[in-house]
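Notes on consecutive records. When two proteins share a document, each keeps its own sequence and its own token line. Never mix them. Below: protein one.
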Amino acid sequence: MFDPDKPYNDLPLLPQKQNLETIRVLRKTVSANKALAELKGLGDTIPNQSMLINLLTLIEAKDSSEIENIITTHDELFRAFSIQSRNIDPSLKEVLNYREAFWAGYNMISEKGLITTNIICKIQELLLNNTTGIHSLPGTKLKNDRTGKTIYTPPEGEMVIREKLGNLEHYINSDAVELDPLIKMAVIHYQFEAIHPYYDGNGRTGRMLNVLYLIYKKLLSLPVLYLSSYIIKNKGAYYNSLIEVTSKNEWENWILFMLEAVEQTSFDAIGRIRNIRSLMERTSDQVKTELPKIYSKELIEVIFQQPYCKISHVVEAGIVARRVASEYLKQLAETGILERRKAGRDVLFINKGLYSLLKN
């Protein structure tokens, strides 16, 4: 019997004994997979994929951190990422850590060909920038923000937690259970949240794991799907559905929630990618027409790497020397494509159209 005030050491191991593929779930799986496949196909056609991933990963880092009440503005985030100063606000540092942790996880999984407990722990370590690791002390409780009442107490005891993580690792990498990967992703996400293995960073680590799993299963080639925006908009339903799996064994609503999140955020990403590509094409045509002497494909790509551009970004891309790079960006500002702004000792140039797209 589940008791929210007692450690849930009886959290069932995977796989579940019950049938998860209800008629409603199977129907929703079809539409979610269709939307995801369209996103994958579109992402694969983008000429400069690193540029796209760079932009969208920053947005996901912001949104996923916001779910944990780590609030930053788009302006603060883009500026901090461009300047890359060590003296930045702790909240901004946590968001930027998310991005770095995600990329580390992506590279480790690509190299190893598996999603392991050690990789998940490394992601959490980079995210929090500490090595406390799996919690060994009792006392972790999840409470209702409004009432203060305990709604869930995760498993306690490092051996218990490691056993459940080991079971989860086996489930992630095994094909013994024939489930659609999107349904399996929902199960993995619940199980990780329920194990709640760390003192902090569980939610953000779990949300990274969603996308990494889809890439591991080759449903995505690139990390361009991010569920955090949907979770922010439906935060109450997200947490209610999670706890109902624990308290009532109500899997259907949880899986349907996650499938809807995949479908809607796929459509959102498709729209955003198309808008970015269209803006790039219009900007390229404008520069060719108004500033033909400075136009190059590489210059356009640099000013679309992130909303804030510095002279050093143009230099590091090997386009021109510093003095000429400064002149190029000034000319782009004079046409209205960029906007020059002082940030301490740095001079930044904002890609106004790109900033507007990402902010909205």
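Protein two starts on the next line and is unrelated to protein one.
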Amino acid sequence: MKTIRLLTIGNSFAENALTYLANIAASSGKVQVEVGRANLGGCSLEKHWNLAVYTERQPDFKPYQLGKAPDGSPCTMTLQEALAAKPWDYVSLQQVSWRSPRRESFQPHLDRLHGMIRRLAPQAQVLLHQTWAYRSDSTYFPENGLTQELMFERIRDNYLHYSKALNCRVIPAGAAVQRAGRAEGRTFAWPDPAFNYQTARAPELPKQDHSLAVGWHWAIANTAEGIPELRNDPNHLNAEGCYLIGCVWFECLTGLSAIETSFAPKGMDPDSVAFFRTVAHETVMNPAF
């Protein structure tokens, strides 16, 4: 099979995208994807650039772990070393999600990172990984004067703007999440009127039908007593969301249709699998819906 080499420069949102990508590609029977991860949790374009500048002066500081060495030890690198490590076919960039609606937050660091890629990995195509709007119950919206729809529209427009400025393609992951959430019978609604969010006890959870985000879950609080705490993650994707955008990435990298692949995450019902493959394909065909 053909091998496609991908390096992601991102954060946990890139990790979401990579969750099932290799499996989806392998199931096509035509291509496999080899991935390098220059991802750091919560990392912005600014931080990636600042780390690159710092490691120029302090090359022994290697913040990225791209995998494991033959002896099983972590294979750590600087960003410069990661870009030169292999003949990457694609290198992706993204802004951290909470800054993505703010166009001015991308620069000048996007240009600087793009220039570094062009110098150190000139054979690679640069891709912009479009992030997604948070789930509608995120506190981000009232805190920033946004709605879920407005967050998506600003993200979509910003990535389109910079794709034109840099002459590179967008991976429309955010558009796919939005399209799936708008589909008839697939809309997430909150709050659950039958659930008391203040007095609930583990393992009780509200209804979260059709959510593509992790959402409400129980986690052990950071206390000596280990008391479970009800938390909400409306930002990161659950298995269904990760599968959906994995299909989007597969199509963007290979030019093949996700509808023709056979991999499905364990436990995902066939109707949902078919739905997500179709949404991914329709989004890649029409990313600016």
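For the record: The chain is about 40% helix and 20% strand.
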